[in-house]
Amino acid sequence: MNLSTLLTQPEYNFLHTDEHLGRHIILLSLAGSYSYGTNNENSDFDIRGIALNRRSDLIGLTQYEQYVDDRTDTVIYTFNKMVSLLLNCNPNTLELLGLNPEHYLYLNEIGRSLLENAHLFLSKRAIQSFGGYADSQLRRLQNALARDSYSQSEREKHIFNSVKNAMYDFLRRYEKFENGSLRVYIDQSQNPDFETEIFIDTQLTHYPLRDYKNIWNEMNNIVKDYDKIGKRNRKKDDNHLNKHAMHLVRLFMMAIDILEKGEINTYRAKEHELLLSIRRGEYQSPDGTFREEFYELVSDYEKRLDYAARNTALPDEPDLERVQEYVMQVNERVIRDEI
């Protein structure tokens, strides 16, 4: 399909008819594989965009953050919501500010000004946001392989590591275990079907029931994900695994550019063939696991990201004063109905 006529198709009529969109839109772009340069014959068009908050959102009672159309895989953020995501160096939104020109399907004056001010949002927050996102991609990859390729003992160890990683998040989100303790560990199992098994020792006093319920539910969900029963669709699953593997490496590439050069480069021209080779499954072994060369590649990028993080010239935090001044200028024009 010709990109110049993509948005004229009937399924995109909501762009013109929805009260939050229409003249409020300042940017529409391709996202996903087309924006990275990793699309293939099966790739769909993902649309992302930004629309100004309406006057009623800014000085009235209405609250609105984004429009989602699942049928066309379109997500359009309000301007204020986008700014908050950009300030945290959110990878999925930051990449919209570093596309190739041909991947912007619509861009008005304010949309261009946002691209020109992209540098205001770059800070060392990208280390955590991109690094955390890459880590989650790696865990998703390892989790899938653990379910399909590891022995029971190895699989149990992997579940244990996932639960342990989750525990750090529990301690951050829930009340501290000041009046007790919760210990998760692996030991020999008395279950004849298991060699080893995960155990938990809990000693809690005056601990909120709802918090305990949340902790239990999340640990239960981690274990349940590994215990799902069903035949594996190898071809479909391998396509997803390779896509996750490709995105993992791509995230490292983008993060390193941001930290070393202060640039957002979404389209990976130089690494195009490498990324496509990962997506095609050229780093996979016949048994579905990934070859040692892939993990060596990931390790190399991890080291480069660590070096870039330690030596970056980016500030610790974004320039909030300048961002606020810019946001106020834009929103004041909305309130005055000058747009």
Uncertain stretches of 5 or more adjacent residues: 229-233
* Total count of strands: 7
Secondary-structure-derived class: alpha+beta
| Number of separate helices | 14
Report the mean per-residue pLDDT as an integer: 85
In percent, how much strand structure appears in the residues? 5-15%
Main sheet attributes: strand count, strand direction, barrel closure: 5 strands, mixed
Describe the structure.
It contains 14 helices and seven strands. The protein has 339 residues and is an alpha+beta fold. A hairpin with a 4-residue loop joins strand 3 and strand 4. Helix 9 runs antiparallel to helix 10 and helix 11 packs antiparallel against helix 12. The longest helix is centred in the last third of the chain and has 28 residues.
Précis, in short:
This protein has helices spanning 3-6, 14-17, 33-36, 55-59, 79-87, 91-94, 109-116, 125-149, 152-173, 209-226, 234-261, 272-279, 292-311, 320-335, and strands at residues 25-31, 46-51, 66-69, 74-78, 104-107, 180-188, 196-204. The protein is of the alpha+beta class and 339 residues long. It is built from 14 helices and 7 strands.
Helix and strand arrangement:
Layout: H1 3-6, H2 14-17, E1 25-31, H3 33-36, E2 46-51, H4 55-59, E3 66-69, E4 74-78, H5 79-87, H6 91-94, E5 104-107, H7 109-116, H8 125-149, H9 152-173, E6 180-188, E7 196-204, H10 209-226, H11 234-261, H12 272-279, H13 292-311, H14 320-335
Helix pairs in contact: 8-9, 8-11, 9-10, 11-12, 11-13
Essential attributes:
single chain, 339 residues, alpha+beta, 5-stranded mixed beta sheet, two-stranded antiparallel ribbon, 14 helices, 52% helix, globular
